[in-house]
Specification:
This protein folds into two domains: about 100 residues, no CATH class; about 40 residues. Helices cover about 40% and strands about 30% of the residues. The protein has four helices and nine strands. The strands form two sheets. The protein has a five-stranded antiparallel beta sheet. The model has no long low-confidence stretch (mean pLDDT about 85). This is IDEAL domain-containing protein. InterPro entries: IDEAL_dom, Virus_scaffolding_prot_C.
Length: about 150
């Protein structure tokens, strides 16, 4: 019986339609018949994830593990049959995308305020064009909340 002991990427790289999860020595370890086998990058050392489909692309690539003189060859598809492996791989992918898309709250708030200010300016222009004095006065008061000024 094969169990996952450790799964940690050496690097994660976006490469066109793929997300490449790269492994190096000791970044993966398996427990087979109560023996711990360490990953060695002899044949394959990467898992390719199709970003659009969120599926593993290189299922038939072979990963090599060793324990002393014993060598174990395991295909990516065999690794994918282990629930622990699938779960940890999904966590790695999720963490990568989460880190990549993090935007500071203060930055988001600044952008939203700028968009609101620009929208008020457009509405002021429309109120002027349509001769809506009441809307114009209301909008210019709102604009002052954003530190904006109406240009004369």
């Amino acid at each position: 019986m094969m169990q996952l002991e450790n799964l940690q990427p050496y690097a994660i790289v976006e490469d066109g339609p793929f997300l490449r999860i790269i492994f190096d020595h000791s970044y993966i370890s398996l427990l087979v018949d109560e023996k711990s086998y360490q990953f060695i990058p002899a044949e394959s050392s990467e898992i390719f994830i199709n970003k659009e489909l969120n599926k593993v692309h290189n299922l038939f690539d072979v990963f090599t593990f060793e324990k002393g003189e014993e060598i174990l060859h395991v295909t990516v598809i065999d690794l994918m049959h282990m629930k622990q492996f699938r779960t940890q791989l999904q966590q790695i992918i999720h963490t990568f995308y989460e880190k990549r898309t993090m935007i500071p709250v203060a930055e988001v708030e600044t952008i939203v305020q700028e968009l609101e200010k620009e929208n008020i300016l457009r509405l002021i222009d429309r109120a002027i064009d349509e001769g809506e004095e009441h809307s114009f006065l209301e909008l210019t008061n709102r604009l002052s909340e954003y530190g904006g000024k109406v240009e004369e």
